[in-house]
Amino acid sequence: MYLKCMFKGVVMINFKKVTQIGGAILCISLIIITISLLISFPFASHFSIMQQVAAHIVTIVIAAFVKIGYVAFIVGKYERGLAF
Q1: How far is CA 52 from its chain centroid?
Q2: What residues contact 9, with CB distance under 8 A and at least 6 apart?
Q3: Residue 18 has pLDDT above 60, yes or no
Q4: Which pLDDT belongs to residue 78?
Q5: Is residue 24 part of a domain?
Q6: Is residue 64 in a domain?
Q7: What is the number of structural domains in the chain?
Q8: What stretches pass through the bilayer (predicted)?
Q9: Distances (CA, A) of 49 to 15, 18, 21
Q10: Which residue has the higher pLDDT, 44 or 8?
Q11: Mean pLDDT, all residues of the chain
Q12: Residue of 56, 60, 71 whose CA lies nearest to 25
């Protein structure tokens, strides 16, 4: 797949790499969000209030990375013609 870039001309996109990076971002962010949710709710009594606040903030921020990883993974698979 070729993509025209305004500044550098034609750029080649490796969608296999897009799929791999999207999958890695998705997996890592799901692990982080699971840990932050565990700190935020069921094990909150074992952590200070500052740690709980940080875990709540991380939960919100990492949710965006889950979405980005998922979209990259799906786009990579779609462009390679692989089934979902």
Answers
A1: 22
A2: none
A3: yes
A4: 94
A5: yes
A6: yes
A7: 1
A8: 21-41, 53-75
A9: 43, 38, 34
A10: 44
A11: 91
A12: 71
Per the model's pLDDT, the better-predicted residue between 64 and 3 turns out to be 64
**CA–centroid distance for 7 within its chain:** 28
Where do we find the tokens 């565990």? 38
pLDDT-derived band of residue 12, with 50, 70 and 90 as boundaries? confident
DSSP-derived 3-state class of residue 13:
coil
Q: Is residue 4 part of a domain?
A: no
In a domain, 61, yes or no: yes
Check if the beta carbon of residue 20 is closer than 8 Å to that of residue 75: no
Chain length of the chain: 84
pLDDT at position 2, please? 58
CB within 8 A of 17, min separation 6: which ones?
A: 76
* Pair 52, 44: CB distance under 8 Å: yes
Locate tokens 């875990």: which residue? 55
